């Protein structure tokens, strides 16, 4: 009995949202003018922090005023890039309520990313409960203008304070939030991509299927080269056949006209080199629901069938499509940050493949229908599955 008791008390503590301790900022910061928001630069009042050590397990979660972290210089996150993150948003609903979008999927992906870097496991439901508490405290930071949201960045870093190149036995989860303006601002109608097959971001068998900080680090040099040549982002190609993968923090979709009048909606498969985007999964589900008559995508004829293909696409194929008049209807990137954004041109082998750009924000019928459907579900205007979760 006594022996049992002592084993129980020594077991490292699980992540437990009920142990939350909140210290609020005495004088809240003034809200910045929402017109001048630059993505990811505004710091709000509070942040959430939880620490893990092998001896004690997960500490009591703390919400406290936003501020710097204090880290030992030997910390494994600084030395060996044990950093994983998520990107999710909370939207103002049609009745002023705060709504998360498929948050359980973000938590599950974060848990998988942490496991990929051998970071300590945590209970995703408890973390989500804590994120909701943080959001309730930061509600006034959700911009009220249409298309705006509060971006949430849950992060886990390895904090083992020693130089041995071994898995980190210690970790810190922190969650910060930052207000985000609408992606479409001013006259910009989409983004251009430079297709790059060298110095590639991710290889088969690598870590591309997880949201790891290190996946981004090696992409920044090619990104600067692309910027110098006048392109917004890099389109990462894979292998001799130059398979299209993804661009920036976006999955890609190609809408191609079929001879029978329907549309093929093609996206590269989840082969481990591509991040399994939640927005990507939404596009696939919406296309399916539209084609079976379960929903009608706003502005898309109900009779138009969208045939989804998760299959490899090569640059050569895109090039051929683009030379056949009227064949490529739309190319768009999707992700939490942009929702849906049109791709205007792709630089490849010294030339530009120019893609159709449509009136208004540049999106075509399908891209716009997808975008509108996403916004409608995110704000609770339209219900689809149980994807929109009120934060209460
Ligand atoms: C986050 C991310 C995406 C988009 O994922 P969502 O879940 O749709 O936001 C796509 N590609 C990469 C590389 C990413 O990091």
Automatic annotation (TrEMBL):
One Gene Ontology cellular component annotation? mitochondrion
One term of GO molecular function = L-valine-2-oxoglutarate transaminase activity
Q: Name one Pfam family in it.
A: Aminotran_4
Enzyme Commission number, as recorded: 2.6.1.42
Needed cofactors, names only, are: pyridoxal 5'-phosphate
Q: Which domain of life is it from?
A: Eukaryota
- Catalysed reactions listed for this entry: L-isoleucine + 2-oxoglutarate = (S)-3-methyl-2-oxopentanoate + L-glutamate; L-leucine + 2-oxoglutarate = 4-methyl-2-oxopentanoate + L-glutamate; L-valine + 2-oxoglutarate = 3-methyl-2-oxobutanoate + L-glutamate
Q: Which residues carry this modification: N6-(pyridoxal phosphate)lysine?
A: 211
Q: Name one GO biological process term.
A: L-leucine biosynthetic process
Keywords in alphabetical order, please: Amino-acid biosynthesis, Aminotransferase, Branched-chain amino acid biosynthesis, Pyridoxal phosphate, Transferase
Show the PROSITE patterns listed in the entry.
AA_TRANSFER_CLASS_4 (PS00770)
What family does this belong to? Answer: Belongs to the class-IV pyridoxal-phosphate-dependent aminotransferase family.
- Official protein name in the record: Branched-chain-amino-acid aminotransferase
């Amino acid at each position: 009995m006594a022996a049992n008791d002592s084993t129980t008390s020594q077991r490292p503590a699980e992540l437990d949202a009920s142990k939350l301790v909140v210290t609020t900022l005495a004088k809240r910061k003034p809200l910045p003018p929402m017109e001048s928001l630059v993505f990811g630069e505004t710091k709000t009042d509070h942040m959430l922090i939880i620490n893990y050590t092998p001896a004690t397990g997960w500490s009591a979660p703390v919400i406290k005023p936003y501020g710097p972290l204090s880290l030992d210089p030997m910390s494994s996150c600084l030395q060996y890039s044990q950093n994983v993150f998520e990107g999710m948003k909370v939207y103002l609903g049609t009745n002023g309520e705060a709504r998360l979008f498929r948050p359980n999927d973000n938590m599950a992906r974060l848990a998988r990313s942490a496991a990929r870097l051998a970071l300590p496991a945590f209970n995703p439901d408890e973390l989500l409960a804590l994120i909701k508490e943080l959001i309730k405290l930061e509600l006034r930071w959700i911009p009220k203008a249409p298309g705006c949201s509060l971006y949430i960045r849950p992060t886990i870093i390895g904090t083992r304070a020693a130089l041995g190149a071994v898995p980190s036995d210690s970790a810190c989860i922190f969650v910060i939030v930052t207000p985000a303006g609408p992606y479409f601002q001013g006259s910009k109608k989409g983004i251009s991509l430079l297709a790059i097959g060298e110095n590639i971001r991710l290889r088969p068998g690598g870590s591309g299927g997880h949201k790891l900080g290190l996946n981004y680090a090696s992409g920044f040099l090619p990104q600067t080269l692309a910027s110098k040549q006048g392109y917004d982002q890099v389109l990462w190609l894979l292998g001799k056949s130059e398979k299209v993968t993804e661009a920036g923090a976006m999955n890609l979709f190609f809408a191609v006209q079929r001879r029978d009048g329907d549309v093929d909606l093609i996206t590269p498969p989840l082969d481990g080199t591509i991040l399994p985007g939640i927005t990507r999964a939404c596009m696939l589900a919406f296309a399916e629901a539209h084609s079976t008559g379960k929903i009608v995508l706003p502005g898309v004829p109900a009779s138009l069938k969208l045939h989804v293909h998760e299959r490899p696409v090569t640059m050569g194929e895109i090039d051929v499509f683009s030379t056949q008049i009227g064949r490529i209807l739309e190319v768009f990137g999707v992700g939490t940050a942009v929702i849906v954004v049109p791709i205007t041109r792709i630089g490849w082998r010294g030339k530009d493949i120019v893609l159709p750009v449509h009136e208004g924000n540049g999106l075509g019928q399908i891209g716009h229908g997808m975008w509108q459907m996403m916004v409608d579900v995110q704000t609770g205007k339209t219900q689809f599955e149980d994807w929109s979760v009120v934060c209460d």
